[in-house]
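Last lecture ended with a question: if I hand you only a sequence, what can you say about the shape of the protein? Today we answer it with a concrete record. The protein is Diacylglycerol glucosyltransferase N-terminal domain-containing protein. Below, first the input exactly as provided, then the predicted structure, then a couple of comments.
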Amino acid sequence: MKVLVCSLFQFPNGHLKVAEAIQESISKEYVNAEIKIVDFLGYCNWNLEKFVSALYLTCINKSPSVYRSLYKNIMYSEDSSKLQMQFPFISLYFEQKMKQLISKEEPTLIVCSHSFPSKMIGKLKEKGIISDVPAVNVYTDFFINDIWAKHPIQYHLVPHNKAKETLITKHGIKEENVFVTGIPISDSFNQTISKKDKRTKHVLVAGGNNGLFKSSELVKMLESNPEITFTVLCGKNRELYDRLSSLNLPHIQPRGYIDSSAELNDLYGEVDAILTKPGGVTISEALQKKVPIIIHNSLPGQEEVNLKFLQEQGIVRASSSNQLIEEVNSLVFNDDERTAMKLKMERYLEEISYNYTDAISYIIQKEVSQDLVRSTS
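The predicted structure:
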């Protein structure tokens, strides 16, 4: 069995993390399976991937209003065919590249962790070109944008019941083909870590690699709260790491990029709250660990839509810059508020009816071969 997992971009991002979680899961369940993660844009053209990823990062950080407008008009609008209608030759180019990729790899199952390759696979399926290869959408945000192919894709792993209802009622997907799994994260986060006895409160700050620290109020909050230990995940942002290190404050602990999910799981087990942006994967990790969440500085587009949903569920607290210090302190030092948020998290997680590993195994047994044996280790 060969599984092709289609993602997008080379830089660390949630779509890639979900792809890696899927790869890890299938590898454990089917030890003889070949699972290959492909950055579809990079496969098409490495220079194109570098250009588009640089443009994307520049746009969300330097011109957020431009990206927000593009997102609403192309990726999350009533007319989801707008991009293809305006640029048919571009769409045809990517369709041909996807056809080429599938012909080269000859997968027995295709999994998409990004909407763009899903769209191309959907178009090929509509034309009957790859109708014999089953495909799975694995949604990586708390909503379903318009770029994802819907009906041509056989199976769908969704974050919650509302997303399932949308696929069934709006797009005509059969109920038995939609699995409420939550956003897939590494199995490492299922490991329970005993909390250490500690005298000070501890907050994990995530998102330093993607614009969380544009706010001077955030740095001010870190400096002015010595009674809280802050572990700051700087990612690959060396400038931020050096800046925080130069403060030489013992309660501020900058960390570089953490590649190990087990190490990150240990950190979640130590903290009283997380201060982050509303990215699908980070929020899902915090939900799994039931770590109270404070949101600061959403990126334009998908994170703003995520935040709206999360606030409606009452499972995050959003903070503006001028209220950041008060919001962090009121949550971290108020046991009742943290307990209330954890209870809402537990109610939300009750919606998850399938472990994503079991859902994918069900699909493999049904569509690929009933003779494939899952590992018992």
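Comments.
1. The two ends are 19 Å apart (CA to CA).
2. The longest helix spans residues 88-105.
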